[in-house]
Amino acid sequence: MGYRVAVVGATGNVGREMLNILEEVKFPVEKLHAIASRKSIGVEVSFGEQIIKCEDLEQFDFSTVDLVLMSAGGTISRAWSERIGAAGPIVIDNSSTWRMDPDVPLVVPEVNPDDVEWADRKNIIANPNCSTAQLVVALKPLHERARIKRVVVATYQSVSGAGKEGMDELFDQTKNVFVLGATPPKKFPKQIAFNVIPFIGSFRDDGYTDEEAKMWNEVHKMIDPEIKLTVTCVRVPVMVGHSEAVNIEFHEPIDEDEARDLLRDSPGLIVIDKRDDKGYITPKEAQGEFPVFVSRIRKDPTVENGLSLWVVADNLRKGAALNAIQIAQLLHERGLLRQKALA
């Protein structure tokens, strides 16, 4: 007995990755529906050995499914998620729309799995921001051991975080630099090929961007509102994989060896940390992988209890699609997915 699952936004980068991971982890799917906008009706996507044609979001009867994986953007989620949840299935949403709603759990299974227990308030569970997801997997075990006081983060975010248009723009600009000159930017505010852009999202009145604010708000909701956190989000010319330089100040002493051992024993993490030219991870090696990788663990001598880390993950996987499927697995393990449609 499996579940009837709908993937909304099935033709996008994350939607296609959701389909791949559902098959990879052998999630118990009885029937899979690929849902998209009207313009994508009939477009074919792959699910294992099956080829599935996309169905129309406007016409689909969501009361016939048990689980909806939503990755169609904030506008669609805002318009549809509550209606879908009211029809019965649980919605796992990848947009920022519901993350800070007090009646919607924001979940990374390695960090706050028990929060899925109150998903029935709206039948919606939110996926965090891609950069937040990998960050909290690394922070949680350290916070439990030594209580985090303050975190300073600089992100190095790949263009896939901006969707297929971002990936296409990097590819086209990189290719054309050597021919006719880089094509003008469309998706990004400035040229991304051979460049870095210290701006993601939109500016707030305080000078930070909404992408940066998402990270500290989500850390507060999932781990501890007392943690002070400041962020600079940077777009870099990498196709897939987000990286973060993380500086942490603790209330209690913790040395780098203890932190290294603690992280090695924590779920969802792999530590690659040797002091040679192959002893650290880059986004290239993390691409296609499930875990969050931690490298460059070292003492920060400028504060009493400080450490610096390098944190890398595949943003399309742990940062989005994988985390959503792991939430679905958690719901399944705890008996919280109702098979109403198969009764």
TrEMBL record:
Annotated metabolic or biological route of this protein: Amino-acid biosynthesis; L-threonine biosynthesis; L-threonine from L-aspartate: step 2/5; Amino-acid biosynthesis; L-lysine biosynthesis via DAP pathway; (S)-tetrahydrodipicolinate from L-aspartate: step 2/4; Amino-acid biosynthesis; L-methionine biosynthesis via de novo pathway; L-homoserine from L-aspartate: step 2/3
One of the record's GO molecular function terms: NADP binding
GO biological process, one term: diaminopimelate biosynthetic process
Binding residues annotated for substrate, in chain numbering: 157, 235
Domain Semialdehyde dehydrogenase NAD-binding: 4-119
Keywords for this protein: Amino-acid biosynthesis, Diaminopimelate biosynthesis, Lysine biosynthesis, Methionine biosynthesis, NADP, Oxidoreductase, Threonine biosynthesis
Stored InterPro entries: Asp_semialdehyde_DH, Asp_semialdehyde_DH_beta, NAD(P)-bd_dom_sf, Semialdehyde_DH_NAD-bd, Semialdhyde_DH_dimer_dom
Catalytic activity: L-aspartate 4-semialdehyde + phosphate + NADP(+) = 4-phospho-L-aspartate + NADPH + H(+)
Quaternary structure annotation from Swiss-Prot or TrEMBL: Homodimer.
Name used for this protein in its record: Aspartate-semialdehyde dehydrogenase
UniProt organism field: Phenylobacterium deserti
Gene from which the chain derives: asd
